[in-house]
Amino acid sequence: MRTIEWRDGVVTMVDQRKLPRQFEVIECRDYDAVAAAIKDMTIRGAPAIGAAAAFGLALAARASRAATRDELLRDLDTAERLLRATRPTAVNLAWALDRVMSKARALDLPASDLREQVTAEAQKIADEDVAMNRAIARHGAALINDGDTVLTHCNAGPLATVDVGTALGVIIEAHRQGKEIHVFVDETRPRLQGARLTAWELTQAGVPMTLIADNAAGYFMRAGKVQRVIVGADRVTANGDVANKIGTYKVAVVAHENGVPFYSAMPTSTIDLSLPNGDAIPIEERDAREVTHIDGVCIAPEGVRVSNPAFDVTPHKYIAALITDRGVVYPPFKDSLLRIMRAEA
Ligand code: MRU
Q: Which atom of ligand 1 lies closest to the CA of 157?
């Protein structure tokens, strides 16, 4: 099943906070519930929250009592503001909201027809995400050799997208093609997306893997035990800098130091050519409890000062290639990104 789906006016999503102990699907019946699910990370991962935001607008359109097109657009604006404020770093969220809103604004239709069009556009975003991820998997699998050990950080699997995944989609496709590969999975503190979600997804897919503490990644790379690193992305800027889960930067620097190619995989909806470089990306700061507590148990002194940035930026000089749905692109990324973004999908 898909991570997120529209079913007869209800948005269903896998509750990612409960995995791997419990597989539970929740229902969101209004856009406030979708916004809350994005914020508390019931659903997470850049493409998945993009689709969620789009479906949030579809719920808002459906619930609106507006009799006219203008009234409906006003109700959509209100929902859009709430959804946009949930998480700032992954550009897919803003991208999906912009896409649905500009579609709605461009159509001169009665309110009832506009409602249908908003839902259709959200569904299209979800379907296109699956298609883009399949293309990423195809392009990226060619970069993995038989016998490789691949290291990944955080979760960029089916759960982080509508389906298939980005970085993990590549890995799973290489495995499906019969390549003998092994995956080192960084646990990914503080929220442990690697240990909880990536390890679960790779186990489901039957891909051989080893879970490691984040701090062990450098040890294995220096020992020559890692042939490639593949991660996802939350936003890629015009020069090829990549924002991804906190800790990615450290992995990229160590990979570079040890001559291990570092790749980032993403659909074109994650590429933001409006920002010149990674310094311009807003970095989400999350609750201190994510650092001080594990499974509800406080592991730090009471009242300790905490900083908890959820993402960091990997400068493009550490990146060997970006794997997109429109093909693999190489440095200089300023040129190659512009070329693929101008090209037809
Ligand atoms: O805070 P999260 O779990 O939403 O962060 C997710 C990541 O950083 C992923 O690596 C990224 O979104 C790529 S998802 C295909």
A: 15
Query: How far is 214 from 233, CA to CA, in rounded Å?
Result: 18
**What DSSP state is assigned to residue 3?**
S
Total structural domains within the chain:
2
Strand, coil or helix: 78: helix
Say yes or no: 69 and 159 in one domain: no
- CA 38 – ligand 1 centroid, Å: 12
One domain, residues 111 and 225:
no
> Is the domain of 117 the same as that of 177?
no
Catalytic residues: 234
Q: Residue 320 gets which letter from DSSP?
A: S
How many angstroms separate the Cα of 282 from the Cα of each of 33, 59, 123?
A: 24, 27, 28
State CA 150 to chain mean position distance.
19
Please check whether residue 251 is in contact with residue 153, taking contact to mean a CB–CB distance below 8 angstroms: yes
> Distance (Å, rounded) from C-alpha 5 to C-alpha 84?
20
Please check whether residues 216 and 252 belong to one and the same domain. yes
Domain extent at residue 55: 4-134
Q: pLDDT (tens digit, 9 = 90+) per residue, 201-259? A: 999 999 999 999 999 999 999 999 999 999 999 999 999 999 999 999 999 999 999 99
Give yes or no for a contact between 209 and 184, defined as CB atoms under 8 angstroms apart. Answer: yes
How many angstroms separate the alpha carbon of residue 257 from the centre of ligand 1? 24
Q: Of all atoms in ligand 1, which is nearest to the CA of residue 311?
A: 8
Query: pTM for the whole thing?
Result: 0.97
188 contact partners, CB below 8 Å, separation of at least 6: 153, 154, 155, 194, 195, 198, 214, 245, 247
CB of 244 sitting under 6 A from ligand 1: yes
Q: What pLDDT, in 10s, does the model give residues 105-122? A: 999 999 999 999 999 999
Q: Which residues pair with 299 in a beta bridge?
A: none
Q: How far apart are CA 156 and CA 144, in angstroms?
A: 17
Q: Which of 90, 116, 134 is the last residue of a domain?
A: 134
Answer yes or no: do 69 and 110 share one domain: yes
Q: What is the CATH number of the domain that holds 180?
A: 3.40.50.10470
Residue 74 shares a structural domain with residue 150: no
